[in-house]
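Q: Sequence in, structure out?
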Amino acid sequence: MDNVTIARMLEETAALLEIDAGDPFRIRSYRRAAEAVDQQTTQLETLAAKDADPKALLAIPGIGKGMATNIRDIVVTGTFPLRDELLERYKPSILELLRLPGMGPKTVALVFSALGITEIDALEQAAKRGDLLHLPRMGQKFTDKLLKGIEDYRKNSSRFRIDVARDYAERIREWIGAFPGIETITPAGSLRRGRETVGDLDLLVTGPACEPDVVAEAAQHVASLPLIERLLAKGQNKVSFTLHNGLQVDVRLLPRSSYGAALQYFTGSKMHNVALRQRAIKRGLTLSEYALLRLEDNVVAASQSEQEIYHALGLDFIPPELRENNGELEAAESHTLPRLIERSEVRGDLHMHTTESDGRNSIREMAEAAIERGLDYIAITDHSKNLAMTHGMDDARTLAHARRIRQASIDLAEEFAAGRGPQWERYQRLLRNHAAQLHSPVQPEPEAHKPTTAFRILAGVEVDILMDGTLDLSDETLAGLDIVVASVHSGFNQTGEEITARVLRAIENPHVHILGHPTGRKVLGREPYKIDVARLLEACARAGVAVEHNSQPERSDLSDLNLRLAQQLGCKIVVNTDAHATTQLDHLAGGVVQLRRAWLRASDVLNTRPVERLLAGLRGTPAGSLSEG
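A: Exactly. Output:
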């Protein structure tokens, strides 16, 4: 029983208690426990074992004696008494209602008490009949939005966000990798190509344990994975199953001789593979998941690596993110594929939040986490006051916060100059690792590891774009900041013309540097608002306002297609995490994958530059006028 499942059960129980009008303190305790479990790096399954220290679970903040008992019950039985009692009262299908827009626990409780509804089909029928119009806070506008939400939910319910698929791929990989003789485990399909969502998960496995004469034992090990909800098939070299959330996983155990061909084939996309097979036929070859063969004598031309296959077809190696049959074959043939941006080339993150608004960590904690991840600078951009639910800042608080941010930056610089502090400690660790790799004592520091400047924290804000396109803070306040990210957080139902005009007015403000999450979409959750993206990007290019790719997996906004358009129109582009906790800084890697899908190079992205050159290029300088730094 993994932590994700335990946390999900506790969070669902909190929602059920809220539907049941339970004690608010008890509801909060379940939510606090779910969050605590989700943040643990140690699997609670080990802490809840019979032979484990009974105090181990209690040492986790947010876990008391009663909650520890619940967790032990979940690990042993897959559930616990209170959850069972509530599900029997309301039916498991009621949890699905909570995934619809506007259907929080209190609204679900209302439709249950008034109409006895516990299923999506019944809710849809009631909405179409007009039954909801007679209930409090459920007018025609709410009903229309709900029906659209049900339609979107059904359309997307068989898809999973990339971060969900990636997390399960890693958990499954850890399990499979524990079997002796397994060497390589590689996700394929949509996940490897970096699509925002995946329909199923393909994992390709190879090593001595996957050779035909011994592969049955490895297949049996895969089939015993604890995460499996339902085993669909178990053959000699393929095991298929579903997880609790419905995600189907296909694990293929392959001999090393055909691993490259299988990896190319199962990575896709379908149209890329079709075009590649057609190219093979024209060259007297045939391409399958087993090998690239010569038609004349059935001799293998390539099979062990993808590079061999592409080269045998007269092509440069095509990165997985580009394999969408969108011009990549032609570019590979003419040797004009771009050198795609790498995560290591991103030097800073310009959008994140602290405890000053709705973040979980302090300025210093966010900075130290960024240093640990190899960044050279960050911008702290807490919310402005219009977003009241996030404890947003007014003008006075914004400027006071900016002073604290700049002081924190000074403190870090002074520590580094004195040979101490988190930046210096990371540098020393890199030196020790370098020496260990060389099997020698520590030598004079390699220049590759030595920071050339002290880590910098920029003072910024994420300012709300109000309904009329004005900004939520005064120009005088914004002028005193290093980074201003302007974003829409409300009024999503404006017409296309209204919201386009609204954002266009905002970017005319000379103090705006970055347009945050420009289309407002939530992957599998909310459609983009009806903004004219091309018109918006053209205006940003003219104004010198950078457009953001927000790396939060639920946003991934701008999308890869819009990013490519932005690059073609000459927009400045930044990639940010919008982190609300230190752990979310890791989303930067996923954001870079989306930039790669958009064919972007490091030179296309502003925050691959050193901090002074970043600041010089933020506004007022054409995107292509500064050379790479």
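Residues 621-629 have pLDDT under 50 and may be disordered.
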